[in-house]
Write a structure and sequence with these properties.
Number of domains: 1
Structural class: mainly alpha
Low-confidence stretches: none
Number of helices: 12
Radius of gyration: 16 Å
Length: 197
């Protein structure tokens, strides 16, 4: 899952939304360095990623792709999921995406000074470019994949993914519409467990 999906799956819990962002940047054991509710959100982020990574639909999607992309299938599907979630937003959330995004941006702004620098930079980028509201545009998907590819030391094909992998969108959409409801159901179980911690 990428940012939009992780924020959505944080279940409107303000602290978990912050944890959903931090889950991309805070690694290793959680030792109380962050507020307890933020750490719950980080744990939830990690559990969502673990469930997603092991789901059969990931392997199904990877088999569709050309061989050079299979190693990166999880990354591609994560970004595709945000794109597809934005297209199907009203099927999964009662609140308009623009209102949801504004609430997330306000939360990120409120806590910006407490975020580690990489998370702070990403939060500012999300706000400055209104990223959560432009995931329905294919150039956003292509640009996200290209930027992710630039973070790898080894050469990779992600800078071409926007052009070369668009043809797999119908299959990705079918997989998403099967997978995302299952992920929501799993997140409800995980959320209940987090609340009991």
């Amino acid at each position: 899952m990428n940012y939009l999906a992780h924020f959505h799956l944080a279940r409107a819990n303000d602290a978990w939304i912050i944890g959903a962002l931090l889950g991309e940047y805070v690694k290793g054991p959680l030792t109380g360095a962050w507020p307890p509710a933020w750490e719950q959100g980080i744990r939830l982020h990690r559990q969502i990623d673990a469930f997603s990574d092991q789901h059969a639909t990931r392997l199904q999607f990877a088999r569709l792709l050309p061989a050079e992309y299979r190693r990166y299938a999880g990354i591609v599907l994560d970004v595709y999921c945000d794109y597809l979630l934005s297209l199907h937003w009203q099927s999964f959330h009662d609140e308009a995406l623009t209102h949801f995004a504004a609430r997330v941006y306000a939360l990120l702004t409120q806590h910006m000074v407490r975020l580690p620098p990489p998370a702070e930079r990403m939060a500012q980028r999300l706000i400055d470019y209104d990223v959560l509201c432009i995931y329905h545009r294919w150039d956003t998907v292509a640009g996200a994949l290209e930027r992710i590819g630039q973070r790898f030391a080894r050469a990779n094909p992600l800078h071409r993914a926007g052009l070369e992998l668009r043809q797999y969108l119908p299959q990705a959409e079918q997989i998403f519409l099967e997978f995302y409801p299952a992920l929501i159901a799993q997140t409800e179980l995980l959320s209940a467990a987090q609340s009991d911690c």
